[in-house]
Amino acid sequence: MNSTALYKEYVTKMQQIADVKYASAVLQWDQETYLPSKGNAVRGRQIATLNEIAHQKFATEKTGALLNELLAANNLSDAQNKNVQLSLYDYNRANKFTSDFVRTMTETVNKSFHAWIEARKESSFAIFQQPLNDIITLKRQEADMLGFENHPYDALMNDYDKGLTVNTVDTLFASLKPQLLQLLQEIKKMPMPDDSFLHQPFEKDKQWALGMEILRRMKFDFSAGRQDISEHPFTINFSSKDVRVTTRIDENDFTN
After folding, report:
1. Global pTM?
2. Among residues of the chain, what percentage have pLDDT more than 90?
3. Distances, alpha carbon 152 to alpha carbons 109, 142, 149, 219, in Å
4. CA–CA dist 123, 53 (Å, integer)
């Protein structure tokens, strides 16, 4: 098979896997916005199932063979070659996890999210303590599976900033600390600012209207996305062009 046909096969396969992940994202968005609380457990299972399926479709020997064959081709464009390189990086990472681990991590994160919401309402860390411990345990396992040289968090940090390490961050902040301490001392010498506006109640509807006005001025395309109410701010996308934006507006945060 020539490289053009191989790359087309690659694109189709990646799109199918992405579709499964986007379906999971739709369920996650609904969970954080409109899902009735009695649906939490079932929704967590549904999201875990889709994530497990996506992992199983991606982390196969056939996928690895396809990616390596494409990298060996000499007539891909720079953009195509980079796409394959990034997919191979993700493939090698995904193969360090079992599908069972992917499912367990998803289910644990889902349970922890709902425990966190309940803990906020009850002002009780005890409700969230065990779920948090469960996530920490799984994250330590994840770091061990991924591998690291100096610090376990290097493996996890790499997901967000490739190549960044704990040592790099420690060195950076060590160099900033003297300057920050000096700045703090200068601030302490200044008169206290009037921060009364931070302690005033603001009407929920007016805050919502302000958020929508800001989005309109940013030229946000409401035919391709939306804003909804959630417990915590987040953004999520369901395709490469469809972005949904939510902002946290909680009844407990307002005094009318």
Report:
1. 0.85
2. 83
3. 20, 9, 8, 42
4. 37
